[in-house]
Design a protein that fits this description.
about 200 residues, mainly beta, 8 strands, about 60% strand, elongated
Amino acid sequence: MGKKIILTLSILTFLIPSVYARDVDDSAFYLGTGCSFAYEMFDYSEDYNADYGNTFGFYLKTGYRFNRYISFQIDFDYFRNFLDSKYSDCYYCSNYDPASRDFDILTLTGGLKLSVKLTNSLRPYVFAGAGIIKGKTDFESFAAAEISSQTVTDSGKCVKAAAGIDYFLSDNVSLGFEGGYTKAFGDLDEIKFAFGNINVAFYF
């Protein structure tokens, strides 16, 4: 899946013409997409012995660049299948063994992006924002040739901080590399993870 996303981004980057010519420092709306990797840092030590793995995800962003320094940006992140490798029993399915459990995360955050102009093409930046997070846990257990499954969803608030660099291939297209950290609150207080992504954005 990751290879397909990267191939699609590469094709879009070189095939979409720059029909809206503008300077890199002009105000502009922008839209971007990319693929992500999440390094889980969940804290379930008080509940049960869990060991979730890392996973890949999908990333969307949209925003408005006021000037070369300041933008307002909305991020959508989706990470699928944080798989718990140690899970074999839990209070949802205590009569079944073996069993599996995986966790999906969706976040929607909005915040400020502050950029610095190194050259006309290179723009390092930092981003800080807050928003909502939704988590979905899928349980599946097997016993006597019978499959039992259950889905539990929770939601809460989250904060997101990131730093990265945009490389402008043209005035209308940039390639971005970003790393950051997301922390949830409320019912999903145990959820926190680091992430990295590669993305392409188009400015209009």
